[in-house]
Amino acid sequence: MTPEGPIALSAADLAVAAALILLNGGISLAMSLGMGRSIFIAAGRMVVQLLAVGMILEWIFGLRHPSAVVALGLLMAVLAGREAVARQRYRFRGIYPLGWGIMVGSSFLVTAVALFGIVSVDPWFQPQYAIPLLGMVLGNTLNGIALGMDRVLTGLRREQGYIELLLALGATRREAVRDLARDAVRVGITPIINGMSVAGIVSLPGMMTGQILSGTAPVEAVKYQIMIFFLIAAGTALGTVGAVLGSLRRLVDGRGRIRSQALEEKG
User: What is the largest CA-CA distance in the chain?
Assistant: First the structure.
């Protein structure tokens, strides 16, 4: 960092960083992974999306209006919910509204706790706080929902006979799917547990690193990162549990019947 602030990156600097992606492509080619096209598409998509977000955020920062912040937050949540559902091998009618509802509910609730109860931002809609906090919660909640939902839908298709046997023997709907639900939730929240376990020892988390690079005192950056981890953990847990239980409720009715015909494999 220079005395005037963080070191600005030029287009040439970014070009050097972008050249490093060729390493991924080379590994894919050398090992015949067949991932070269996906790697370069993902990299290009990331650059375009981040540049677009940067321009949008500058515009919103200038507006400093609650409606703009809420609108962008809802758009981010809807896109995150769609991405979580799009990763599923099996789907059912109503899976998209379920994914969107769980994503919006869990992420907005946790972010509201941060804005009103922890950081106590005044006014609450300051975009430099609201948008980054929501974005970090959304990104990790997305992974939890995607992993948990994938495990429960795949497990329901794989263990349908066993679950139906339990139901036939007198088990309630809750008892019959309890183990499957536990396993799916465990899968969904494991990544954030792993992330918290190695933070500061194996890795320096992104938000903390960014704040330090921008000139924030390391101790203050650490405090924010601790808060973020707890927010992410809560959002991931709420989202994963909601997605898993919501999916089971849609696919196992109150009379103990599995709606297997409603579960379709993505083509």
Answer: 73
